[in-house]
Every structure is written in structure tokens, then in C-alpha cells.
Amino acid sequence: MAIRPNSHCTPIVIEDVPIPVAGLRQILVKVLAASLCGTDLSVVDGAYGERQFPLIIGHEAVGLVHMLGPGVEPFGFQVGQIIGSAPYRDMCLECYECRYHGPEFCAKTKMQGVFAPGFFAEYCIMDAASAVVIKGFESKEELVQSVESLSPIFCAGVSVWDAFERAKLARGETLAIIGVGGVGQLAVQYASAMGVRVIAVDVREEQLRAVARSNPGIQTINKTGLGFRGVQERIEALRNGHYGADVVIVCTGAAIAYQTAFYCVGALGRIMVLGLPKNPIQIQAFHLSARCYR
Fold first, then answer.
1. Phi, psi for residue 33 in degrees, rounded to 5
2. Taking residues 253-280, what's their average pLDDT?
3. Which of 56-65, 92-101, 142-151, 262-271 has the lowest mean pLDDT?
4. 221 Cα distance to chain centroid
5. What is the 3-state secondary structure (H, E, C) of the chain?
6. Rounded mean pLDDT of 230-246?
7. pTM score
8. Neighbouring residues of 115: CB distance < 8 A, sequence distance ≥ 6
9. What number of other Cβ atoms are within 10 A of residue 29's Cβ?
10. 118 neighbors 112 (Cβ within 8 angstroms)
11. How many CB atoms lie under 10 A from the CB of residue 76?
């Protein structure tokens, strides 16, 4: 199926979408599970500007390799494998950005479900340069039963891990996670497994309780009624007088979360952007200059 929004942004179903043909470096995949991301809803609402509709949305999926296009053989994929993919396709793999920064920065890259057909379909295309084979299960039956929990890893999970790597988050450091919805909960799990000290910040008590139950040892702050300085003081108390966290990762699309982040991070700290507010965020140059945040 493909969708296009009407004047009220209500999706209209358009049927009879043809099965795509795998082109150069492309894999035709039978979708086993595809997750709904907040970005999908933003695409439908027009938050990222004009889009070519109708459009198949969806950019987190796990599927079964059905057919290999030309140029896929060097990547080692085989029909029958279960794979997942980051939502990038058509990068050239030859330009400066591809070779030195990463193919997601290539000028030719298209994000699936946003600028190219996505994964909310029975069959979809994945780029061999973005895809990986899923291993580590004792049987294919066990793996098939797990695909629903695996599919969010290929956007939410990859985004969290990428933020950790770019922040150079290290064992023993303190990480403040602002917003512990779906993405934030993955961040809590990953950080806890890494031996990082986690402080979860949210305005929803039920979400804070949920992550605390699942990840014993983390600390939580309910920001409701505290204000920026109140959150700052709570973090300072939790760190025994040490000002701010080493790294702050913002996992919510609320613009106020970024203002909160400046009161959560310590000197020379790193603030990582995951949540995407619809409106511009305000940044005070004084904060950046006085404490040398990155």
C-alpha cells in the first residue's frame, strides 16, 4: 500500500502497488516486520516540507531476501537470509563524504520512506551497502518470532548507538537521557549494558517507573514543576556535587527538552541530538562559550 494525505492529513489507502524490481546493488526483500516511527508521522504531516505523494512510508524493517539485483554478489547476501537495513539507499560510495565521513552524508543518498519508497509494503527494496544479515539465533523459527522487536533497531536503535559513538560515551561516565519514550528506553538499555551511569529525565512518571523497573540501578528525575534550575540541582545532587552529566542525549521532539539539556550537561560535555522538534530550538551562545559544550 501507499498513502497520501488529504486536506486533513488523514491517510488515504491506494492499492495495487506493483512489486519493485531490484536494480543495481539492490535487494528485493519480503517484509516480515516494519515498525512505525515518529518520523513516519511527521512525513505524513508535512513536517519536513513538500513530499512527492503517494508515498510508501516506513524506514525500520526486517525481511527475507527474495531476489538479488546486479552488483549485490560482492556484499555476500544470499536468497533466504533474514536481513535488516538502515534506511539509506543510492549513495555513490565513491565521493569524499562516502569514503571519509559515511555514505549517509552522500549527496545522492535517499532516505527510504521519506524521499524513496519505504518498508510498509509486502515487498521492498534494500540497498546492499546499508543492509546486514541478522545472526545469533539458534533457529530460523526463533528469529522469525523475534522480528517485531528487531525492526525498531534499524532506526531507533541505530540512531541511539550512533549518538553514543559520536559522543565517545565511555564506561564510567554519566549520561542524562531526556525523554524515555521508545527511543529513550533503548538508550537506557544500551547505556546500562555499557556500564554507563544513567540519569533518566522525563515529565511522565509512568515512563520513568517503567525504565527503572527494567533497568535497576538507573536514577530518574521527573521534571514536572522543577524548572531548568531544579533539574540542574537534582543532577548535581545525584552526582554528589559534581556539576552536570558528561553526555546528554535528547530523545524527544519537544523543543523545551533542548533548553533543559543545557542545564543537565557539565563543562566540556556533549549534547546529542535525536529528537526532532517541528519548531526551531533556541540556543544561548553564552552557554556554549562559558562551559565549552559540544
1. -160, 140
2. 91
3. 142-151
4. 23
5. CEEEECCCCCEEEECCCCCCCCCCCEEEEEEEEECCCHHHHHHHHCCCCCCCCCECCCCCEEEEEEEECCCCHHHCCCCCCEEEECCEECCCCCCHHHHHCCHHHCCCCEEECCCECCCCCCEEEEECCCEEECCCCCCHHHHHHHHHHHHHHHCHHHHHHHHHHHHCCCCCCEEEEECCCHHHHHHHHHHHHHCCEEEEEECCHHHHHHHHHHCCCCEEEECCCCHHHHHHHHHHHHCCCCCCEEEEEECCCCHHHHHHHCCCEEEEEEEEECCCCCCCCCCCHHHHHHHCCC
6. 89
7. 0.86
8. none
9. 28
10. yes
11. 9
Q: State which amino acid sits at residue 193.
A: A
The set of long-range contacts for 159-165, using a CB threshold of 8 Å and a minimum separation of 24, is 159/183, 159/274, 160/186, 160/187, 160/190, 160/249, 160/251, 160/274, 161/190, 163/187, 163/249, 163/272, 163/273, 163/274, 164/190, 164/191, 164/194, 164/249, 164/272
User: Which of 258, 278, 274, 254 is CA-nearest to residue 43?
Assistant: 278
CA distance 271 to 286: 15
pLDDT surpassing 60 at residue 52? yes
Which grid coordinates are listed for 245? 552529566
Give Cβ neighbours of residue 9 (< 8 Å, ≥ 6 apart): 44, 45, 46
252: CB partners within 8 A, 6+ apart: 178, 179, 181, 184, 275
Phi, psi of 147, deg, nearest 5: -65, -30
